[in-house]
Amino acid sequence: MTGGLDLDAILGEIAADMAREEDRGKVADYIPGLAGVDPRHFGIAVVLADGSMHVAGDADVPFSIQSISKVFALTIALGKVGDQLWRRVGHEPSGSAFNSIVQLEAEHGIPRNPFINAGAIVVSDVILGGSRPTEAIGEILRFTRHLASDESIRIDEDVAKGEKETGFRNMALANYMRAFGNLDHAAEDVLQVYFNQCALSMTCRQLAMAGRYLMAGGAHPDTGHNVVSALRARRINALMMMCGHYDGSGEFSFRVGMPGKSGVGGGILAVVPGIASLAVWSPGLNDRGNSQLGALALQQLAVATGWSVLNPR
Ligand code: GLN
């Protein structure tokens, strides 16, 4: 699959193209810790099934992974309660903004999927599962470090604090779901977990490493042990494909053709099962809150490599 491809040259060219782009989107400013990030950053990292790593641009600069963390949190929650989770969160695309509240009323407090904020807040509630918020946060951090085989990954406390201070909408979502009986813990505690997982700070290299289990049918490439079953990995990939970019998921799939999960920090984690785990970062967002150049870079990469889950070579 990867034979004959000069990935380092392809990534170098993409990074050079992205450096020339003037229309870079707009950096998220509703979270204080994100507002000051320089929109000129661009990084990309690709880890292949054989373990080789290829990078270009700012692949070693940490950024706030934000909603990309919803993939790792979902994986933990499924490990805890299995398919029971789907009683409390759906697995349908929402077609709505990431922080939308509108569908919750008609759907009795059951969020459409685990990748919109409401769904991720329910997932945080499941991870909390009777323990203290600091313990749940520690579990998410340890799990992410384990996936990436990298103990240096940390949580940016300032970003988490800023989210708490400005997270009125998330507070509303949490309390609204609690009113429907779809939250077991106090909204403050659940959101402490949610805000801290969103504030995970990672580089493209670390993120691509963390996504390897989704490339490898659920197995951790360094240990050979299953993080999740192959079926569960397939389903997480399916959710990323359908819901990973909110109301921009169709557009991303149309252009890139890979399961992907975006965050308002400008990162995207994408997976080509059996072939590659990829991470890209450019802080400027489009009007749906997804990285503008991140999607463009992945689109170029998909063309250059022929990688896609929709017409595998
Ligand atoms: N922490 C952000 C929020 O809740 C995450 C949103 C995102 O990355 N789309 O608003």
UniProtKB/TrEMBL annotation:
<feature type="binding site">
    <location>
        <position position="194"/>
    </location>
    <ligand>
        <name>substrate</name>
    </ligand>
</feature>
<feature type="binding site">
    <location>
        <position position="67"/>
    </location>
    <ligand>
        <name>substrate</name>
    </ligand>
</feature>
<feature type="binding site">
    <location>
        <position position="264"/>
    </location>
    <ligand>
        <name>substrate</name>
    </ligand>
</feature>
<dbReference type="GO" id="GO:0006537">
    <property type="term" value="P:glutamate biosynthetic process"/>
</dbReference>
<comment type="subunit">
    <text>Homotetramer.</text>
</comment>
<comment type="similarity">
    <text>Belongs to the glutaminase family.</text>
</comment>
<feature type="binding site">
    <location>
        <position position="170"/>
    </location>
    <ligand>
        <name>substrate</name>
    </ligand>
</feature>
<dbReference type="InterPro" id="IPR015868">
    <property type="entry name" value="Glutaminase"/>
</dbReference>
<feature type="binding site">
    <location>
        <position position="163"/>
    </location>
    <ligand>
        <name>substrate</name>
    </ligand>
</feature>
<feature type="binding site">
    <location>
        <position position="246"/>
    </location>
    <ligand>
        <name>substrate</name>
    </ligand>
</feature>
<keyword id="KW-0378">Hydrolase</keyword>
<protein>
    <recommendedName>
        <fullName>Glutaminase</fullName>
        <ecNumber>3.5.1.2</ecNumber>
    </recommendedName>
</protein>
<dbReference type="GO" id="GO:0006543">
    <property type="term" value="P:L-glutamine catabolic process"/>
</dbReference>
<dbReference type="GO" id="GO:0004359">
    <property type="term" value="F:glutaminase activity"/>
</dbReference>
<keyword id="KW-0007">Acetylation</keyword>
<feature type="binding site">
    <location>
        <position position="117"/>
    </location>
    <ligand>
        <name>substrate</name>
    </ligand>
</feature>
<dbReference type="Pfam" id="PF04960">
    <property type="entry name" value="Glutaminase"/>
</dbReference>
<dbReference type="InterPro" id="IPR012338">
    <property type="entry name" value="Beta-lactam/transpept-like"/>
</dbReference>
